[in-house]
Write a structure and sequence with these properties.
This protein has 1 helix and no strands. It is mainly alpha-helical. The protein starts with a helix and ends with a helix.
Length: 77
């Protein structure tokens, strides 16, 4: 009777551990699929934000170059 009880306890612990591991694996697989589906949208957003920043930098650079050219012309007078 004692050996059967110990065996049942060990089986119960092993079952709980296996069930917990299975649940974690399913959750991780679902998270992976969700994240994988979001990557193209995130990549598209990242490129759009990068291009927006590049436009701001280019505009500021153009304004500074134009200002330097104007200051040079004013300085020659």
């Amino acid at each position: 009777m004692g050996a059967a009880l110990i065996g049942a306890c060990i089986a119960l612990v092993a079952g709980v551990y296996a069930g917990s591991a299975s649940t974690r694996a399913k959750r991780a697989r679902l998270d992976y699929r969700r994240t994988k589906a979001l990557v193209p949208a995130a990549r598209k957003t990242a490129w759009a934000e990068s291009l927006r920043g590049l436009k701001v930098i280019a505009s500021a650079g153009a304004v500074l170059i134009a200002l330097a050219m104007v200051m040079n012309v004013i300085g020659q007078r």
